[in-house]
Amino acid sequence: MGALTSSSAAPLGGLYIIEGLGEPPWKVSMVAIVQVVVTLLTNRAFGRAIDRGVPVKALLVTSILCFASGMTVLGTFQLYWVYLCIASILLGIGSGALSVMYSFGRLFAEQTERDVVRFNGYLRMQTSLGWMIGPAASLSLFGVFGFTITYYSIAVLASIWFVVCLFIVPGAFKTHHPGSLKTGRKIPFNFGLLLACVPVFFIGAGNVVFLSAMPLYFTTELGLIASAAGFALTVKCFVEVVVIYFCATLIKKIGERGGMILASVLGAIFFGLIYNATSLGDVLVLGALDGLYYGIFAGISMTFVQNFAPDRPGVATSYYVSTLFIGGLVGNLATGFVATWFSFQTTVLVAGGFALVGGLVLLMMRDRTTQKPAQTAV
């Protein structure tokens, strides 16, 4: 429900500011920067709160209510400064729900003695499924009824998400790692955790660069039909979900770092091939390769980062989610600059470069040192 609801709002932001409010494109970046900064601060605060023993339900409810309020504000007040100063802040806090849910999933898997890697994969599968449906549904609704009705509809969807949360998430559920971040205690610096986020940043940013450029690259430079990007994305998401399901088995064979390296290599190969694509058939076939590399990345990356701080899953997950948001922001900015000065096809090479850099960092890293908390937790 969270992925379906939040993804429904994702494709409307730039469209709303440029077409709905009649503002110049640079103002889209201003809103994105405010929202990402608030999200990073929220993830940091929520991650520490989880590790200090704050019930996850309180944090999740806070995020959902802020998200629903942001959607209501956008539907009611069609003013840019309201979006920038109020709605973007509310939506930034609402984005903290993703980090809370992933932390909740990790802790729940540990407490119920489930396979952590496989359970994390289930969560990522639900995220992918939500993104398969949400953006297409909201854009279809916008095409018929406009922005106001669409934003109000997403707010109603958020209300359903809120009710689902009330009934499903246990009110007293909290971390079982006692005193990992006691109030007043200095937080130890974890270089391994920070380093683990670097390849996640580069591979994730490469994906965003390509997704941002893909629609215009396919239509204006490859001369394909307008729906080509949608078809390719559908193929990608379908393959991605299937691949995530089998990632636990892959990890047992080649390890987490090995799986991440494989994702990086496959990603670089995909970007090199899609750069030379010429037909719709090429695009659809390569969409499967896109789903293969990103499915491996999505299915492994969260567990890969979390395992560098097994006794502080809240902080580790907040690092992971924040890294994805920063990668998304940098990816979008890179797409704009490269496409403006060169071409959308060139952005594909930039995306491939990001993937390769991520792979090089992984090659220079060592496997995480097995720690006692990780053994008892898993």
TrEMBL record:
UniProt cross-references to SUPFAM superfamilies, sorted A to Z: MFS general substrate transporter
Stretches assigned to the Major facilitator superfamily (MFS) profile domain: 192-378
Parts of the chain that traverse the membrane: 28-46, 58-75, 81-108, 129-148, 154-173, 193-218, 224-248, 260-277, 283-305, 317-342, 348-365
Keyword Nuclease: no
Domain of life: Bacteria
Similarity annotation: Belongs to the major facilitator superfamily. Set transporter family.
Name the record gives this protein: Sugar transporter
Originating species: Thalassospira alkalitolerans
Lineage: Bacteria, Pseudomonadati, Pseudomonadota, Alphaproteobacteria, Rhodospirillales
